[in-house]
Write a structure and sequence with these properties.
The protein is of the alpha/beta class. The protein contains twelve helices and eleven strands. The strands form three sheets. It has a five-stranded parallel sheet with strand order 9-8-7-10-11. It has a four-stranded parallel sheet with strand order 2-1-5-6, with helices on both faces. The protein binds phosphoric acid mono(formamide)ester (CP). Phosphoric acid mono(formamide)ester binds next to helix 2.
């Protein structure tokens, strides 16, 4: 694996999920792989889980870790080519990526969507500019359109918790008062569609009209606009808010009836609740669900360490 930007960089998904599960059982088996190598973690946006779990995974593999909050600890970075640099961005990505690539053997990057310009966000400018100029592997720590380390952790979590060979997995939109990116939902669709294609899950998406995700992500997933109907027989309910893709970046409704409660869990097949976190309690999902045995959110976050370790191991093997 030379980059981990999306599912397209994964050659064997079953093996990668198993590698994460193996790392969870034996975290230090590959601690020699990263010896005398360095990973740089660049954050254009806030993080709790991604920052700590990726650092921990890197340390388990013997890597040295450097972390930087871009624009706060460093100069602001210009991503556009050929512009007169008279804005507040003092350094161009061409130099910055090349320089960081001299200090680091792998670079992880978090850079969210701006939600102002759909074409710009879906161009994945930050990831692609670093991939072009850094000359070292790039790991997506959540980009404008994808969060693949989260999706891999979600796959691991579903594999661990499933009680039947082909569980029903339902991605549901949740209410929120401010616009959030589509990255987690996009990625979850991408990875669940792959799992559905191999017969490992049945995948359903439910959301209010107007919240349709980009066609390249939602693929052949079954869309059910009635949330109650979608939850019938569900083994996993995966909650996430996202802003509209068609009316780009807009909040079209805050309908509280879309929040997940114990009534929804009762409608499912003894279903488990999943969310990538952070989650706003009683806005998106009730205390009763989060504090019940139906919630997998802590295990899901714990599995971020093992998804990162599986990916970094693949990259280190290719260096
Ligand atoms: N799920 C997730 O990526 O969490 P953070 O934003 O805290 O990293």
């Amino acid at each position: 694996m030379t980059n981990f930007l999306s599912l397209a960089d994964v050659t064997d998904l079953d093996a990668l999920i198993q590698s994460g599960r193996d790392a969870k059982t034996n975290p230090f088996t590959d601690q020699h792989l990263g010896k005398n190598k360095t990973i740089g973690l660049l954050f254009f946006n806030s993080s709790l889980r991604t920052r700590l779990s990726t650092q921990k995974a890197a340390q388990n593999l013997g890597l040295n870790v450097i972390t930087m909050n871009v624009g706060q600890d460093s100069w602001g970075l210009e991503m556009e080519e050929g512009v007169i640099m008279d804005s507040d961005k003092a350094e161009h990505v061409r130099e910055a990526a090349a320089v960081i690539g001299r200090y680091c053997d792998i670079i992880g990057i978090r850079a969210f969507a701006g939600l102002q310009d759909r074409e710009l966000d879906y161009k994945e400018q930050v990831m692609n500019q670093f991939a072009k100029y850094a000359n070292v592997p790039i790991v997506n720590l959540e980009s404008a359109t994808r969060h693949p380390l989260q999706s891999l952790a979600d796959c691991i979590t579903i594999e661990e918790a499933k009680t039947k060979a082909r569980p029903k997995v339902v991605l549901t939109w949740l209410p929120h008062f401010k616009p959030l990116p589509q990255a987690v939902a996009n990625s979850f669709c991408e990875w669940m569609n792959a799992r559905a294609h191999s017969g490992d899950v049945e995948f359903v998406v439910t959301h209010p009209k107007g919240y349709e995700l980009a066609p390249e992500f939602v693929g052949n997933a079954r869309i059910i606009y009635n949330q109650d109907e979608a939850f019938e027989g569900a083994d996993f309910i995966y909650g996430k808010n996202w802003s509209s893709y068609t009316h780009y970046g807009q909040v079209l409704t805050k309908d509280p009836s879309w929040a997940v409660t114990m009534d929804d869990i009762r409608r499912s097949d003894n279903g488990k609740f999943m969310h990538c976190l952070p989650v706003r309690r009683n806005l998106k999902v009730s205390d009763q669900v989060l504090d019940s045995p139906h919630s997998l959110v802590i295990e899901q976050a714990a599995n971020r360490e093992w998804s990162a370790q599986a990916v970094l191991k693949e990259i280190l093997k290719s260096l």
